[in-house]
Design goal:
single chain, 461 residues, alpha+beta, Beta-Lactamase, Heat Shock Protein 90, 3 domains, five-stranded antiparallel beta sheet, five-stranded mixed beta sheet, 21% strand, binds adenosine-5'-diphosphate
Length: 461
């Protein structure tokens, strides 16, 4: 091919391309743009430049309209067509009015009129082709399209938003109702509480008044008790002095009865009948018993009254001396064993001797006939006190009587079998208690008895 033929072919090919482009522009397959350049006017197809905008408008979730001020729709996107449920070709060229509810058309028209270049917005209700309502938000703006006054409208479906608002309103209403209900309940509760507090305060006031009364009464009572106690003490002291002197004075005539009866028995005994001699012996025995009674009452009185002076008393020595002092506490009359050395205690020595003597006396006295009394004495430490047990093999005491045998004149066993006055244990109890100690017994009939005395231990020995 010659150079000229080659150039001709190239020119033909370029012409064919130019013809194709122009055809496309004429048939509106491609939008075109004429731009004046240094080499004269140039035609640019807009397909490439505009595509993103077209895609954007078609793909966006909002409806878009281009309309003339008189209402005719020049263009709409696919979304708008979906919203009103009408094909795009039926929308283009139609008026926008029928798409809005009749009572809102005027307002929509006013919005369109006043949109201007800064735009206007509003919420309205459109109606789709099938008549269903469609709440929308309109954003309108005036613009010039190819020199023609037009309106660009963005239509946003706000049905979901409305629903959400409604749901929110409902939720708010429900919340409000609940708040009111709760407030009502709280007010009620507050009222109940207020009443309760008032009652509580009233009760407290009443309590305080009652307490004040009780305090006043207690003070009064204490005062009266103090006075009565002082009174009583004075009377008891008086009585004790009286009984002491009476007892003391009784002993002299009693001794006279005793000794003269004795003389009578000794000197006239052989001349007396057996009966008369018997009467005389009973007079002597009665007088002796009465004398013992008086002596013990005197001891009890001494034990119960007057001030006591305490010292450290070696119980071991005291008990051994007591045993040594009476033959009835020694073999063959009795067997008394001190099992372990006894401690030193704080006591009034004479009184303690009396107590030990009384306990040992009872232990050897209250045995079954023909029984040799056996007594075991053993100590036990009880914190700061010493407890000393006197355990015998005697006839025992019923537990029902354990308490009362420590009372004055209380006796469980018959006088014929076991003579006595019923004062011995009262002296023990009174004396030991006055020395800051205590007494007790464990016993059963036929099983012996265990009496104890408990006294404060001497701490510095
Ligand atoms: P008395 O010995 O003069 O009867 P007490 O006051 O010493 O008076 O004792 C009161 C009573 O307690 C006694 O009459 C006796 O019934 C009972 N009793 C005291 N010691 C013993 C004892 N070791 N064994 C059995 N009974 C006892």
């Amino acid at each position: 091919m010659t150079r000229t033929e080659k150039e001709l072919t190239e020119v033909r090919e370029r012409l064919a391309v130019a013809e194709q482009t122009l055809n496309a522009i004429y048939t509106q397959e491609v939008d075109a743009l004429v731009v004046a350049g240094p080499d004269g006017d140039q035609i640019f197809t807009l397909k490439a430049a505009e595509t993103p905008y077209r895609l954007l408008v078609e793909a966006m979730n909002e409806g878009t309209l281009i309309a003339l001020p008189d209402g005719m729709i020049l263009h709409c996107n696919r979304r708008f067509s979906e919203m009103v449920r009408l094909p795009m070709e039926k929308i283009t060229g139609a008026s926008w009015q029928p798409f809005f509810k009749a009572d809102e058309q005027e307002a929509v028209a006013s919005l369109m009129q006043h949109a201007g270049e800064y735009g206007a917005k509003g919420e309205f209700t459109m109606q789709a082709a099938d008549g269903s309502p469609l709440p929308v938000h309109l954003s309108v703006r005036a613009l010039k399209l190819d020199g023609v006054e037009s309106l660009a409208v963005i239509v946003t479906d706000i049905a979901e938003l409305r629903k959400a608002h409604q749901a929110l309103n409902t939720a708010n209403e429900q919340l409000e109702t609940r708040v009111q209900k709760r407030t009502g309940e709280l007010a009620k509760a507050n009222e109940v509480l207020r009443v309760e507090i008032a009652e509580h305060q009233a009760t407290e006031r009443a309590l305080a008044e009652a307490e004040a009364k009780v305090r006043a009464y207690a003070g009064d009572l204490e005062q009266r008790i103090r006075e009565r106690t002082a009174d009583l003490r004075a009377k008891v002291a008086e009585l004790e002095i009286f009984s002491y002197s009476v007892s003391h004075d009784l002993r002299a005539p009693l001794r006279a009865i005793q000794s003269f009866s004795q003389i009578l028995l000794e000197e006239c005994g052989p001349t007396l009948s057996a009966d008369h001699a018997g009467y005389l012996r009973r007079v002597i025995a009665g007088a002796q018993h009465l004398d013992q009674l008086i002596q013990e009452v005197l001891i009890y009185s001494r034990t119960a009254r007057g001030k006591l002076s305490f010292s450290h008393v070696q119980l071991d020595t005291l008990v051994r001396d007591t045993i040594q002092s009476y033959s009835m506490f020694q073999p063959p009359a009795a067997e008394i064993v001190i099992e372990q050395p006894l401690p030193t205690v704080v006591a009034h020595e004479a009184m303690l001797t009396q107590c030990v003597s009384n306990l040992l006396g009872n232990a050897v006295k209250f045995v079954a006939p023909k029984t040799i009394p056996r007594v075991r004495i053993r100590p036990e430490t009880m914190g700061k006190h010493a407890r000393v047990w006197f355990e015998d093999n005697g006839i025992g005491v019923d537990p029902a009587d354990h308490e009362r045998i420590f009372n004055l004149f209380e006796r469980v066993h018959a006088n014929n079998d076991y003579p006595g006055t019923g004062i011995g244990l009262s002296i023990v109890k009174k004396a030991i208690e006055r020395m800051g100690g205590s007494v007790g017994v464990e016993s059963k009939p036929g099983h012996g008895s265990r009496f104890y005395i408990q006294l404060p231990l001497a701490s510095d020995v």
